[in-house]
Each structure stands twice: as C-alpha cells, then as structure tokens.
Amino acid sequence: MKILSHTGNPQSAIRNPKYYAWIGWIFALIALLLGVVVLSLAVGAVDIPLRKAFFLLTKGQGTPEYAILFEVRLPRILLGFAVGGGLAISGVILQGMFRNPLVEPYTLGISGGAALGVCLNIVVGGADVLGPLATPVCGFVGAAGVIFLVYAISARRGGIRLSRLLLIGVMVSFMASSLIMLVMAVTKTEDLHGIIFWIMGSLEEPNPFLIKAVLIISLIGMLLSFIYAVDLNTLSLGEEEASYLGVEVERVKRAIFIIASLLTGCCVAVSGVIGFVGLVVPHLMRLLVGGDHRVLLVASYISGAAFLILCDTVARVVIAPMELPVGVITGLVGGGLFIFALSRKSYTF
Amino acid sequence: MGGSKDTLRVLFTVAFFFVSFSHALSFPLKAKGDLERSLEIVHPPQRIVSLVPAVTEELYLLGVGDKIVGVTIYCQRPPEARAKEKVGTVIDVNIEKIIELRPDLVIASPLTDHKQIRKLRRLELRVEIFDAPTDFQGLCEGFLTLSQFVGKEQEAEEVLERTKRKLKAIKKEIEGIAKSLVFVQIGANPLFTADRASFINDLIKCAGGINIASDAKIGIYSREEVIKRNPDTILIVTMGIVGEREKEVWLKYESISAVKNGRIFTVDSYRVCSPTPISFVETVKELARLFHDRH
Amino acid sequence: MITVEDFSCGYRKGIVLKDISFEVKTGEFVGLIGPNGSGKTTFIRAISGLLPPRKGFILLDEKAVGGMGRKELATKVAVVTQSQEATPPFSVEEFVLLGRVPHWGRFQLLETKRDVQMAEKVMALTGISWLRGRRMGELSGGERQLANLARALVQEPDLLLLDEPTAHLDIGHQVQIMHLLKKLNEEGLTIVAVLHDLNLASLYCKRLVLLHKGRLRKVGQPQEVLTEKIINEVYETSIIVREAPGMSLPLVFPVG
Lengths: 349, 295, 256
Description:
With 349 residues, chain A is mainly alpha-helical. Chain A contains 16 helices and two strands.
C-alpha cells in the first residue's frame, strides 16, 4: 500500500521502552525469588544461623545441620520451585486460551484424575509392585487418562470447542471426586490416611530422582510455552481474530492444552493437589506486568515458584513442630493478596 | 491437654476423621519382619524418638523413659513424657526436629506419613514401624519385641506375667454370667464402629461382651442394623462433649434394649484406643463392670 | 483479486451461501449489503478462508483460499470483524502491533524496528497516535473501531475485509471511517466491506453486492442495485429512493 510508505513520521522507536520495563520486572521478581529461597533455607523448626551455612557447605558434611539444610530444606525448595512455576504457567496458558478468569490447572479434572489414580493405587496396593514410584506414576497415569478422555470427548472434526472442553472437564472432575469418595468409603482405615495425605498436597518428597524429573519437566514446559507466547497474545483477541492474524488456532490450542495438562499432571503426581497457585499467581502477574504473554509467562513462572516456596516455608514454621498442609497457606495468602491487589487497581481480564 | 493442642486436634480431626477416631491414637506394637532383623544390634539404643503414644508409655513401663529424646504431642502419659521434646503428631512429624535430636532409633506407626518415613530412612536413620495389634495376644507380643529392643526382656516378662494373672482373675469373675451384646460407636456422621479387625473387638470379648459388629468388613455401620441387632449395651468412644450429644441421639430409639435399660456409656478414647498391656487389663475390668453390673 | 465461482458453504446445521459467483478486481471498493441473516458475515469468513467450500471455490490472486496457510493468508488479507468478544488486556499500541504477527518468523518474540515504525505510521494515519498508551478497555466505540482498523492495516494487506465497520458508531465516526477507507482505496487497497447503512454504501462504494437468503440477488453500481423495487422486495419493507443532492447517487429513505 502506497499510503503507508510515505505518510506518517517514521521517527525511530528502535528500543522499545516496554522491554526495559519487562527486564526490570523480571529482575525484581528474580530478586524476590532469591530472597524467598534464602528465607526458606534460614527458617524452620530448628534454628540454624545462615552464616553457618557456608561453613557447613564446605566442611559440615555429616552433621545434623548439614542434613537439615541441604537434604531436608533444599529439596523442598527445589520441588516448590518446579511445582509452583509449573502450576503458575499452566494457569496462565489455560486462562489465556479459555479467556476465562476462573480457569485454573485443576478445572479440567486433571487433579481429580490424578487423585483417583493415587487412590486406586493405594487401595490396590500398587506400591508392592512399583515401589515408592507407585504414587507419582499412578497419579500421572490418572491425570493423563483424564486429559485424554476430556480431549477425546470435546474434540470434533471442526476442532476443539472451548466451552465444551471446559464443561466436560468440570464434569469429569466431579465424577472423579465422587469416585474418590466411593473408593474411600470402602477402603480399609489403614489406607485412608495415605489418600488424605496425598490429596492435601505436600512438597515433602524423599526421592531426589523425582524432584529432578519434575524440575526438568517444569523448565521444559516453560520453554515450550514460551514459543506460544505470541500466539497466546493473539488468542486473547478471540479465536477468529487470532486466525485472521495468521495463527493456526486449532493446532495451537491442541499444543498448549497438552503442554499445560502434562505439566500440571507431573506436578500433581509428585506433590499432590496444591490449590490456588495456578489460579491466583497469573492474575496477580497480569495486574503487575500486564497481559502480554511474552513477559507474563516468565514473570508467572518466577513468582509462582517464589509464592509456593514462601507458602511452604510458612506452613512449616507457623505451628512447628507440626506442619500445616501447604494448601491452607496458598489459599489464605493467595486469596488475601489477590483481593488486596484487586481493590487497589482496576483490572480487566 | 492445653488449649492450642485442642485446637490442633480439632483441625486434624476434621481431615482425618476416620483415621484419628477409628484407628485412633495408635498403638502398641506387633513386630514386623524388619524389626526382628534389627534385633541383632548389640547395643540397645540410647536416643529414641517415639512417634506412637502407646510406645512412649510402654517404654516408661520398661524403665527406659530416660532414653526417649522425642515424642509426639499426643504422648501425654505418663506425665513425665510431657516434658520431652515434641517432634510432631502421630501422623505428621517434623523431620528437621528429628534430625536435630540425632536419634539412634525412631519408632513410627503405619499412620506416620510414608513419605516422611522414607525421607528419614534416606537420611540413614533407623526407623521401625509398628503395626497396630488386633488383639491382646498381639499387644503382648509387641510389648515383648519392644523390650528385646531396648534390652529389657526381663522387666517385660514380669509385667506381662502380672497382667495375665489379672486378666485371668477377671475372666473367672464373669464366668457363667450371660454375655452382653455390645455396640461400640466411634464418632458420628457417619456412624462408625469397631469391626472384627479392630482392637476394641478383643477388648469387648475379654470383658464378656459380644461385639454386634464383629462381622462387619468396614467401619461404617448403619443405624438400622444397630436397631435390628438390639444391643444390651452401647459404648460411645469419644473425646469431649460429642459423646453426650450422641447419647441423646440414641435415646430416641426406645426399642433398643440398651436404651430401655439406660446402658449407654461413654468411654475415653485415649484409654480404649491406645493401650499398653497394663491399661488394657484396667479397661477390661472397667468394661466388665459396665457390661454386667445389674445396678 | 478475488474470484468466487459457483460457491456454496455453511456451518454444521446447514448451507448458508448458495451458488455464488462474482469477482472483485484489484483496487475495487465493494460494498456487501443485504438483510440480517442473508449471509454477509459468512461471506467474509469464506473469503478469509475460515469456512471450507461445500461446492465451488474462492480464488485469491489465482490461488485457492482453502489451500493457503493461515499465515500466508494473513499477509494478504486483513479482516476487521464485527464483534470484539473480549477486551484485550493491551494498550492501543500493543494491540496495533499484534497486526505485525503474520510477518514474524515462528520463533520471533520481539518487534523489529520496522514493525514499530509501521505501527507508528498506521496510528498516525488513523489518528489514534495520541491514544497509544491507553488500555483497550478504556476506549470509546469509535476509538476502538479505529484501533481495529489500524491493526488490520498494519498487516500490510492487499485486501481489506470489513464486517460492518460503522455499526454502533455516531455519524461523525461513521464518516471518519468511511473517508479513511475511501482514501486507502484510492491509494490502491482493495476493500470489501459489509455495510448495514445503505446510504453509506451508496455514497462510498463503487460497486454493491446484494445478498438475499444466501444467494446473490444483484451486483452492480449503486444506481442499479438500490432501486425501490429491489430493496422493497429484499428487505420486505417500503422505502423510497431519491438522488443525493449534487451527485447522481441513490439514497434510501424509509416511508414513515
């Protein structure tokens, strides 16, 4: 079009100041994350002065303090990082795709499926066959089963209808929780507490291999979803608009649905059902850094990690030597924080 | 029990309804395979963390209370146990605390979070799990194993000798008296009872009663079934005021003989669910009185 | 530019457009008119490749629309839709810049200098430069429509499709938008616009396409299409047609 080549003032705006703001936010959030990590290392039922940590690191091996810092607290922090980040970006992706502020990683029945898998495993005694890996494996199988079911039912020749997907997900979720109740009602009492423990969610995971696996999967999920950041931006205009902007909407929807689901499935399989991170962190970050997924995804990952580690720290110390379920804290802190933020700033989803 | 502990208990009871009532405050011991293996250790353990209230009590009975370095907040008996360092509850322990105490033996129950047990073992601590016994026999066996563990077999056998004698005396007393049909209620909504595999079943048997739910496979029990089976005595195992409220509920069903004769009793759950051989016999004695006392 | 040949299409429930054939030449400004439910929006969707044909085909520059990828289409065709379902969580400038996405590589994440310059120009052209920092949710209907237009233009399309660009706008904004479209058309942009307002269609479009119940009723210059007979029949109402003062263009008036 000729008109565009000679009208307007082509004054250069090469360096977009927006990018500086983004980088600023990311660094601020990383600093926050580091602060939370240090705090989480420093506090606990047992007092260990932090300055001792460096000493312990070099020649403290074998002492109880070393074990507490690096074999009890550190693995929890790592798992909190992976799960918090993973759930937060799943939330961002799904909310962006559904354009629905109430969607969170568990809405589609992923947690219900995982919980059902774990329940059945505990009742059937799968642990005898698979050993300590039984719980995460069954959780993941349950989650994957539900994802497949929900997807298969809602996918049609013309592509996925999102409202359909959402409704079917919610229904499957309800059915799963009914089945869990059924299983629990006929379970031996000895097995019940295993189920309840798992459903409440916890970052305690004795197996370092699992922690590493979730960490790697979570980071890969982050990178993969980043590839779709621009597509998610266009999707926030609506599906039709997005396809006019050159996005293969159905393919993108399928891809990000699978990424978010598998990511959530992995997190849930290892840590149990930790609610609220995937719902509230994306909203808080939208308030803070805006709706552009290119920054929103990174910011949500970092702050989701920081948020969960912080909540876990609080859950550990608040009634020490006992521990609150971390979900109690994520719900209270997250909900409070969000209402506070919402009351101070206008927010359109 | 202090106020904060009560709050906590309320908090946990909600989530752990079934667990903390039915199976409750857990148990005396019955040895598992791996326990026997570990008996080869020559030196008796010097720093013990007990995550089972009954074990704590039994350790004191065996005279090794001073070797205990950590207990749960539910370990209230004997009173000396309250002064010990608290490392958590029966179901949820604080790993940091335990590590800090440098124990050479941790005694856990099947109720302890499996992940936490695995974590402790990974940190090269010796953790022994004690299953809940289902009868007096198992209780005694477990007690004996524990005693071998801490090198106090002699003491254990003396204790068991005494208790068995007492038990025999009680049995003699109630011989010939008609057996009482008993329904045990553990908590309400849903109505939960002691099934065949439960410890309480044996308790009732020893006290000359017949548990009407002894053929039940799981604990959830229908009120209609209770009415149909018409127990002579209803025992409500409870903590606090729940018992009185439940008693009133039963009073509506006048066809039940226990209601007609005013034989509804509340029993402290701590006594019933967390026995040592000694407290077992005491409880049997008390129950025998409740079952057969014709006023 | 566009060749529609014996084209039928529809949704799951049934066929909406039937046996349509016509052609749009490069540089034309075609107005698509017809009663509600006559298939205008569907036609826009079909041209932009969202609806596969049941019969016939649509060619864009001699290539079948259905065979082109979305990306390729998006660099040639820009669409301004009628309903904006969501309020995008962006500023006006960010919103306009989204129009550059079709020109990006698969792994491109940041705007290039050229993208930003392009957005500058288009915002200046549509007169919304002063709104660039505003959130989309804070715009008035007219401003929002200008932003939509800017986002479509920044795609550098050869063909611009608009679905009722003046709906819900006041007369000032209606004229502003139509003027802008006319200017763009004179600069060489091919435009196909669904227009509700027959008078605006008459005043600005070189050629009108009248759809009725999914079929082509009449194609031609405004004088040929906007006759009392045709309009009364298609819209099932009674209107009168008068000539615009100083122009030989028909205007439509309801008879009260």
